[in-house]
Amino acid sequence: MSTTNDIVLDRKPEAPAAAAPGFDWVRLVPLATVIAILTLWWFASTRGWVSRVFLPSPLAVLNSAYQVTVSGFADSTLLQHLLASLGRVFGALAASIVVAVPIGAIIASSRIGRGIFDPVVEFLRPLPPLAYLPLIIIWFGIGEASKVLVIALAMAPPIIIATAAGVRSVSRDRLNAARSLGATRLQLLRFVVLPSALPSIVTGIRIALGAGWSTLVAAELVAASRGLGFMIQSAATFLGTDVVILGIAVIGIVAILFELLMRALEKRFVPWSTHL
Amino acid sequence: MYKLHIDKVTFAYGSPPSAPVLADIDLSIGSDEFVAVVGRSGSGKTSLLSLAAGFLKPTAGRVHIDGRTVEGPSAERAVVFQDDALFPWLTARQNVGFALKLRGVPKPERDRRVNELLAHVDLAASGDKAIWELSGGMRQRVGIARALAADPEFLLMDEPLGALDALTRERMQEFLLHLWQDSGAGVLLITHGIEEALFLATRVVVLAPDPGRVVADIAVDFGRRFLRGDTSRAIKSDPAFVATRERLRDLIELQDFEV
Ligand SMILES: Nc1ncnc2c1ncn2[C@@H]1O[C@H](COP(=O)(O)OP(=O)(O)OP(=O)(O)O)[C@@H](O)[C@H]1O
Ligand SMILES: [Mg+2]
């Protein structure tokens, strides 16, 4: 007994691995990859390896970024295209949260509810949104509503599934604790079920935002007069490869920003997610 | 004085009911009593507490308080859980104030009461910490304060000291005795520790397994001696204490050979 204690007490504190001296060069690999690709692109376009029509130089793309920002492309500036796309995606997000969270909660808490909604969700989930976009255009026309609806349909399944999983995992002890402290059914929902499921719901929203964003751009390729997808599509018709690449870059950067935004929101609003 | 009465209760899990885990339990707890239930793992202690709390419904018999049948959980029977069951989305302070918030107690009054309770469980300085920043013993005290805030007639505790080291556990035992004295609530305590039961309770109930049933119900007064000023070490080495402890151990270990 005392021997064990002595060994523990005599042991010198180990240096934590992270404190090893020197710089961690491996962290620079992603940056090096990006630089290598840009350099390759640069040489390929300026040395005439590839025709400028197919691959304009990075500088040409930057220049067209400036042009599109200042004087616009296809009747709208870059900012207007971007805002049109963002407006659709966040409109659809709001709509799908309002619908999907209650449906997810119903699926988790009632067998009848699960029977009703599960087949619909399971059918919708693997369906590529572009497959049903034409149908929606036939039904609802080519206006804004159709695009928002398609995006919302793409976003709803991940939120429904995540909400259902979150609600199902609510700790029985915590529910009982709240009930024995006097909680009514409504209070249980508001003060225990919702906060327990929230981390899972936020994860669902993160996935939904990714799915919605890619659906949006695809939907705009088909039917829009403004938006990043439309901008790419109409530039392609005139072989405006610089604007096409610009559009792709903006879409990619926005997707990364979404991810960072969601992570920040997660840290800020559900710090208990890792302690449930 | 209130009386919590577990009145000829038989209980079986599942539907249709499987073999009963509790058979014909008759146990009555006054609101001035401290009743400790001991018994081997699986003897039905947690099931018994869940019945008293209203989380489970008896298969036969009923649970009542002064003639009113218990239909479900209620703040008059606050529960302290073995693995604390605190709400990690709330701070320690908010956990303690939960029952008051549910009742719509205005914030200034709530804050006053919560501060009192936090001070009472020796956590005045840690109120604004997140739950995961607290030690096991601190969390248990938050759980106890949270239950006390409901101002219950009965405090039902399932191994509240199970996860603590020996020294902390001893301090918490003394704390529980003072708490019982001050709160005026009746206590039903589930514990693995025979010595703990003996030191704290005014009655020790022994549960035997398969199916769970009461095989002994012994009145003791070591806790009251502590509250009158004896030290816990003196009490626990008292020959009367040791003799009763051995008797209880025999009673529980007897069940081992019965199967
Ligand atoms: N939810 C459940 N469904 C079915 N059987 C259960 C359930 N919970 C407990 N049991 C059974 O009921 C019996 C009593 O369990 P209980 O949890 O009440 O025992 P306990 O005395 O609290 O044990 P421990 O000291 O290990 O906590 C055990 O045989 C157990 O297998
Ligand atoms: Mg138990």
From TrEMBL, chain A:
<feature type="transmembrane region" description="Helical">
    <location>
        <begin position="86"/>
        <end position="108"/>
    </location>
</feature>
<protein>
    <submittedName>
        <fullName>Taurine ABC transporter permease</fullName>
    </submittedName>
</protein>
<keyword id="KW-1003">Cell membrane</keyword>
<dbReference type="GO" id="GO:0010438">
    <property type="term" value="P:cellular response to sulfur starvation"/>
</dbReference>
<keyword id="KW-1133">Transmembrane helix</keyword>
<feature type="transmembrane region" description="Helical">
    <location>
        <begin position="188"/>
        <end position="209"/>
    </location>
</feature>
<dbReference type="InterPro" id="IPR000515">
    <property type="entry name" value="MetI-like"/>
</dbReference>
<feature type="transmembrane region" description="Helical">
    <location>
        <begin position="53"/>
        <end position="74"/>
    </location>
</feature>
<keyword id="KW-0472">Membrane</keyword>
<comment type="function">
    <text>Probably part of an ABC transporter complex. Probably responsible for the translocation of the substrate across the membrane.</text>
</comment>
<feature type="transmembrane region" description="Helical">
    <location>
        <begin position="229"/>
        <end position="258"/>
    </location>
</feature>
<feature type="transmembrane region" description="Helical">
    <location>
        <begin position="148"/>
        <end position="167"/>
    </location>
</feature>
<dbReference type="Pfam" id="PF00528">
    <property type="entry name" value="BPD_transp_1"/>
</dbReference>
<keyword id="KW-0812">Transmembrane</keyword>
<feature type="domain" description="ABC transmembrane type-1">
    <location>
        <begin position="82"/>
        <end position="262"/>
    </location>
</feature>
<feature type="transmembrane region" description="Helical">
    <location>
        <begin position="120"/>
        <end position="142"/>
    </location>
</feature>
<dbReference type="GO" id="GO:0005886">
    <property type="term" value="C:plasma membrane"/>
</dbReference>
<dbReference type="InterPro" id="IPR035906">
    <property type="entry name" value="MetI-like_sf"/>
</dbReference>
<comment type="similarity">
    <text>Belongs to the binding-protein-dependent transport system permease family.</text>
</comment>
<dbReference type="GO" id="GO:0042918">
    <property type="term" value="P:alkanesulfonate transmembrane transport"/>
</dbReference>
<feature type="transmembrane region" description="Helical">
    <location>
        <begin position="25"/>
        <end position="44"/>
    </location>
</feature>
<keyword id="KW-0813">Transport</keyword>
TrEMBL record, chain B:
<keyword id="KW-0472">Membrane</keyword>
<comment type="similarity">
    <text>Belongs to the ABC transporter superfamily.</text>
</comment>
<dbReference type="GO" id="GO:0005524">
    <property type="term" value="F:ATP binding"/>
</dbReference>
<keyword id="KW-1003">Cell membrane</keyword>
<keyword id="KW-1278">Translocase</keyword>
<feature type="domain" description="ABC transporter">
    <location>
        <begin position="4"/>
        <end position="234"/>
    </location>
</feature>
<keyword id="KW-0813">Transport</keyword>
<dbReference type="InterPro" id="IPR003593">
    <property type="entry name" value="AAA+_ATPase"/>
</dbReference>
<dbReference type="InterPro" id="IPR017871">
    <property type="entry name" value="ABC_transporter-like_CS"/>
</dbReference>
<dbReference type="GO" id="GO:0016887">
    <property type="term" value="F:ATP hydrolysis activity"/>
</dbReference>
<keyword id="KW-0067">ATP-binding</keyword>
<dbReference type="InterPro" id="IPR027417">
    <property type="entry name" value="P-loop_NTPase"/>
</dbReference>
<protein>
    <submittedName>
        <fullName>Taurine transporter ATP-binding subunit</fullName>
        <ecNumber>3.6.3.36</ecNumber>
    </submittedName>
</protein>
<keyword id="KW-0997">Cell inner membrane</keyword>
<dbReference type="Pfam" id="PF00005">
    <property type="entry name" value="ABC_tran"/>
</dbReference>
<dbReference type="InterPro" id="IPR003439">
    <property type="entry name" value="ABC_transporter-like_ATP-bd"/>
</dbReference>
<keyword id="KW-0547">Nucleotide-binding</keyword>
<keyword id="KW-0378">Hydrolase</keyword>
<dbReference type="InterPro" id="IPR050166">
    <property type="entry name" value="ABC_transporter_ATP-bind"/>
</dbReference>
